[in-house]
Amino acid sequence: MASSSIRISAPDRKRQILAVATLLFSRQGFSGTTTRQIAQQAAVNEALIFRHFPSKEELYWAVLEAKILEAAPVRRFEEAVASGEGLEIFESVALEILERRAKDDTLSRLLLFSGLERHELAERFFSTYVADYYNRLAEHITRLMEAGLLRKTDPMLAARAFLGMVIYHSWIQEVFGGRKYQDYRAAEVSRTLAEIWLLGMKAEENGG
């Protein structure tokens, strides 16, 4: 009798493991998820996981990396800058972040878990991906300051203040259940937050 089993290629099996790991890690965190659980839900032998990923930490890292590469925030930011946007870039940046996280809050959950449970992974993620994004935004803010459009202040703190408003709002809505109480439209929020930030950052008429 011919076997009805379907052979799955190694790359497809790796993607299957990653998909299951992403789901479980984002729901249960690093500590709350075992490789045995991942193996069971992916319908593979637990040993197969370690053929593709040297350790549970490296599997979690692969999950984080896959999600950030899918989001491609730096590339999207560069495209916004290349479009010639100046002050308007802040609304478009906020809108992109809010719309993306409203569709998929997995990355937010993974990062929160990594920060609380796996401090070294959080630092690795920040230094590898997040720091570059902040640096690019701070560089854009610096150019706007030099052009006299924004008042002089620490550009990195200004970048953190802006992204802090946007990301915290997305956490409130998507992670902590705020959408049940106020279901804001992303376009409205991005415009409002950009206006609030710019109100405090715009240079005065006399150039002060």
Secondary structure layout plus pairing:
Layout (H helix, E strand, L loop, with lengths): L9 H19 L6 H8 L3 H7 L3 H16 L1 H10 L6 H15 L2 H12 L1 H28 L8 H21 L10 H16 L7
Describe this structure in words.
The protein has helices at residues 10-28, 35-42, 46-52, 56-71, 73-82, 89-103, 106-117, 119-146, 155-175, 186-201. The chain is an all-alpha fold and 208 residues long. It is 73% helix and 0% strand. The N and C termini lie far apart (84 Å). It folds into 2 domains: 10-63, Homeodomain-like (Arc Repressor Mutant, subunit A, Orthogonal Bundle), CATH 1.10.10; 72-201, Tetracycline Repressor, domain 2. It is elongated and about 65 Å long. The longest helix is centred in the middle third of the chain and has 28 residues, at 119-146.
Oligomeric state, counting identical vs distinct chains: single chain
Q: What is the SS-derived class?
A: mainly alpha
Helix coverage percent: over 70%
Question: At the first level of CATH, what is the class of the largest domain?
Answer: Mainly Alpha
SSE ordering: HHHHHHHHHH
- Alpha-carbon distance between the two ends: 84 Å
Rounded mean pLDDT is: 89
- Indicate the proportion of strand residues: under 5%
Q: What would you call the shape?
A: elongated
* Low-pLDDT segments: 1-5
What count of structural domains?
Answer: 2
Radius of gyration, in angstroms, nearest whole number: 21 Å
Report the strand count. Answer: 0
Would you identify the CATH architecture of the largest domain? Orthogonal Bundle
CATH topology of the largest domain: Tetracycline Repressor, domain 2
Biggest sheet descriptor: none
* Continuous helix count: 10
